[in-house]
TrEMBL record:
Coiled coil start-end: none
Membrane spanning residue stretches: none
PROSITE patterns: VOC (PS51819)
Superkingdom assignment: Bacteria
Protein name as catalogued: VOC domain-containing protein
CDD domains found in the cross-reference section: VOC
Protein source organism: Paenibacillus albus
Domain VOC: 21-134, 151-267
Amino acid sequence: MFERNDRDMINADLSLKTKIKFNSVGCLYLPVDDSETISNWYENLFNSAGTRTCGVIWETTKEKGLTCNFMTDEWVPGEPYEMFAVRFETDAIEELYARLTEAQVELEPMKLDESGASFIYRDPQRNKFQVWQRAGTETQPLRDGVPAFIGVATLFFPVTDPEVTRKWYVNLGVHINDSGQAVTGRGEEIYFLRSMEPGKTLNFYTGAGEIQHMAIAMININELETTHGQLKAHGYKVQEHILDREGCGYQFQLYDPDGNKLDMWDMQTMVRRNLQNLGSPNWKDRYIFENCCFWVGIDEFFAKTLEHAPGTRHKRITVVNHTVIQETDPDGILELVKTVEAFGAQYPEWAFEIIYKEGAGEYAHLA
């Protein structure tokens, strides 16, 4: 929870000169006792432990029994309600509801209103989540290999004063829609509900891994380094240093007025030598394009970018071990750079910035 002087600072005019655009929710991190058990449960009932457009990482925590639920008296006006933190969107709500009913999953009745159909379920961790199918969506059957969830529709955060938090988002420059909610470029909404639990946030602690103090959501933005510097200069509470997580991108943590964290993130794709094909006469075979979503050649990388596949639609390509590559394969790397630049000329919206990095990188042994 922020101290009083921190909240006074947040309430001050911290409007940024260059506004931040939240492109999309890139990933969710959710607390569980056993990530393998929960992942298998979702694979079995929802066809995937994630969604079609957004990754979901089930993080095993030291403290057992954690959920991302919180108590509010704003969802049902004037009445205490155990609130869910995420609304997932689907296009197969009827068959999914029937499947969960048959599996004896704890469900609330399906509801219909002008926005569409929805229901709420609890998973084995006791996390509550809402499933929603927007009005006008043609209902589909569940399909093998296709996640039941299209993606995240809405995030709900516990806050002390929703108007203070809304002003904070406005000062950042995040778009506010007609209903008064912050919204990403992809359309995911962010709601702020008054918490009945003082100091409550959606943050949690894993006790293991590179990042142990977790935010619930990773938000994709552009120009991450510039944004980080601007936020620090304007007095926002941010993580001191940017983390370079190679194929997982660049990120830092930003705190809202109540201390809820957001992982601010900019994806990058790493270009590495393909150690299995260094002798190939085709330069394309000698390089791998990889990040946390894929490990492919250059042509498939371009195809994924045009398809808006997970892990694409970003601006940064990082060539690792550049000096060694330049010495051992100058013609190949020249052709690669020319091809990337030609793709950017053909599709200006996705003209990549090429960064050159020395050293093989953390994951070079996998190439």
